[in-house]
Carboxypeptidase M-like isoform X2 (Sipha flava), 628 residues
Amino acid sequence: MASCSATTSVMLVAIAAVAFLARSADCQAEKRLTSVQHQQQQQYYDSSEDVGEVIKSKIRPDTYSQDPSHQLQYEKHGKQHQQDTIGSASTVYGEQYGGTLQVQQDQPVADEEAQESISSGSINNHRIPQYTRGAGGPSDIVEGKNVGNRAIGNNYHPGAPGAVVAPSATGAGYAVDSVYGNLHYSSQDLVQDQNYQLEFKYHDYDKMTKFLRTTSSRFPNLTALYSIGKSVQGRDLWVMVVSSSPYEHMIGKPDVKYVANMHGNEAVGRELMLHLIQYLVNSYSVDPYIRWLLDNTRIHVLPSMNPDGFEVAREGQCDGGQGRYNARGFDLNRNFPDYFKQNNKRGQPETDAVKEWTSKIQFVLSGGLHGGALVASYPFDNTPNSMFQSYTSTPSLTPDDDVFKHLSLTYSRNHPTMNQGVACKTGTPTFNNGITNGAAWYPLTGGMQDFNYVWYGCMEVTLELSCCKYPPSSELPKLWEENRLSLVKFLAEAHRGVHGFVMDEHGNPIEKASLKVKGRDVGFQTTKYGEFWRILLPGVYKLEIYGDGYIPKEMDFMVVEQHPTLLNVTMHTSKRQDNTPYRQPIPHFYHHHHPQGIALAPKPPTQDSGILSSITSGFNNFVSNMFG
């Protein structure tokens, strides 16, 4: 009996041990399952940060939802902030983003104008689509996690007294103005601050500088002020960054720019840029569309490229050339390198500063603001047929003509009168839908928009904003209202087409990889973080990628109307039998002379010489003075 009891006890202990081990195994399995689920969930949220943020950054303005549905928290300058992600209750395209809507309790109430804008849907009533990846498979997608949505600090170093230096993509830096650096205001205080106003009048250099510095000090989390150089007479060429990350590059998010007043007597653009800056910072807390734009774009605004010329121009002069040129008498829009014709004009401080600026920051989209006509003019401005070119009126089309027409139409169609194409006065041309090819209007050599496009792949459009170059200040309120929506919508077009990262097989970004969309022979390059962008319309394309020491690659992808395409590229190193890196012959892109040496181009047409060239040049100057 005792032996039986002992046996029973042993059996009970064994059963209990087995049950305990089974339970432990179940617990471990549950833990592993929970861990896997957590990892999967974390990967989803990681992708929301690495890719989802790219989704947010690439949603076009006419597909944006008025109903952002969740928020991400992130650290910025040591403080906790809330960032609206672009979630949506819309399932129009079969996918819903985000969770439930969270409303910030400390957000100020929108003023009547903002409420009217939101309720009318003039800017904000848009939908969000699902996001599409390009072809390439998992191996071409996963590396995006290595270079996802991360803020890259500028690592500012001391510069001149009262300034800090921001390194650019090429390692050089600009002095960030901090004269008013000790003055700081909260965004909520500023919305309610009635003293922060900008009158509708023209601001000379000192008043413009004061406004920019005041804005920078009052909105330190949305703006940064820096100078890219000085004019002939020593005036700073101020640039203001407006973004929720003004001091940091957000990987995967594009840089765009506006350049105004390069002709000193074309003053409307200068003032509209100041009002645009004020509008953006004031609207950030009350307008979800502006918040989206600033959260996903770094907007650089150069209000006056020719401050010396502005100082001698006179209000009310609609025509003529007083103040048009810089202090040395040079037309700055004839002072850039040219693809079609050698430009022998001596470089000026203002254009040299803009060229260096453009080389340091890879801008995706740009607008040059002018006056004297009402039209959006797109490249090319010059043409191979340069003999008496002002009489030809022959279009000189780029490989991206469809995109440039679309960008121009985006501006003109959001303008109440530009799209009508009505002539400013008798004897001046009319423009179908308010847009024109530059060379078809009148060709010119050394223009800024051709330089941006051919040298750096930045798509720039010239925006002529008023029939009168320097109208009375009483017309500024009307001009601002006519252009406000167009100015915002145009910048948002940077979030269209394709973008992604180029990395090696180890997930490291490849800097200065050369890219080209097949059939569009204007190349572009990756940033130091391997990023690239290209504005494209819906269609099927092939991307050609070249890197020094890497096997060339081609990838097919599709762009649709509703949203942009994320296309990540993995390149593999290639070595010869002697173990030296293989160097792929450089492809023939459109670039005439790229400072970074990425491409060669066909030989440009021969330069005109002698008296015929002088007559042609003189006539072109006469035409440009007449029409802007």
Observations:
- The mean pLDDT is 74.
- Residues 2-58 form the longest helix (57 residues).
